[in-house]
Write a structure and sequence with these properties.
This protein has two domains: 142 residues, no CATH class; 160 residues. Helix content is 86%, strand content 0%. The protein starts with 6 loop residues before the first helix and ends with a helix.
Length: 338
Amino acid sequence: MAHDISLPDRLTLLLVLGILAAAAIAFRDLLWVVVLSASVAVVILPIKRHLGKKMKESAAALLTTALVCFIAVCSIGFIIAVLAQNAAYLSQIVQGILTWIGSAQVEELGVGVASADLAAWVDSQIASLGDWAAGLASQVPMLIVDLVVFFLSLYMFIYQGDTLAAEVTASLPPRLRSAVKKLTATSVNTLYSIYIVHVGTSVVTFILAIPFFYILGYGHVIFYSLMAAIFQLIPIIGPSVLMLFLGVYALSLGDIRGVLLAAFVGYPIVCAIPDIYFRPMMMGRRASIHPVIMWIGFFGGVAVMGIVGFVLGPLFLALAIAGYHILLEEMGQVKEAA
């Protein structure tokens, strides 16, 4: 039976849409926080469902949110602590490389670069980093508000997410309901690949990097392993940049052993194995978007939407591709019925 929307129903629909639009405009500065919390909730809802079998739904949602908060705070605190403790060491490495580049031995090879120019460039970059840190410090109050809104929204999405999805799906016509279910499955699989697989691969990289950097013998094992894990979060680039940097640093020290280890041990174990073996293994059959499309979504999303584009970019592309396939199916059914 065809659905006919009467005039009062249309007015009600317009009123509701107007209220939603007004709320989105009023809270536009926090909208990205809510969207990000919703995407995280989609991925961790299985934890709440499992806990919900043993306790009340509200308690399960609160415990799941607290677990996410604990992991996030501990991870960020650990990263900041390690980077802060090794800031002087990193500066020493950079200065050593600059001295080597400007040395007479390198100039004899015909690849000499003015060390003064490089030092000035590095100093300008450090000054820019200081300005960025000062600007970030001035935004601390707003960042606290963002975090509060994020975790409160996360709790509500975890607590009411299944109910909300069921209500919306049940209100749709059967044919549209099927398309929405397919789009929902695509969204869940894409978000799973962004959060669980991406972060999981980074953790595996950190674990594999520890024995390699211990054998390399430069000390600061946790610092190097953490940098490899952080670089693993950057699509395409990955920890290969770190291995290249270490290769240059080893050359500046005259350590041929270090160069060979970085090229023939570090790169295969720290860079290649996580991407070639662990990432596909964690994805299983849940891959709903080609890796190249995923990379386009990462970089294009960040360029257009900022940090939230890291999540929304691949998600929108995955939904566009899924929508394309749904449209083809609909056209095929119409063709068969004709």
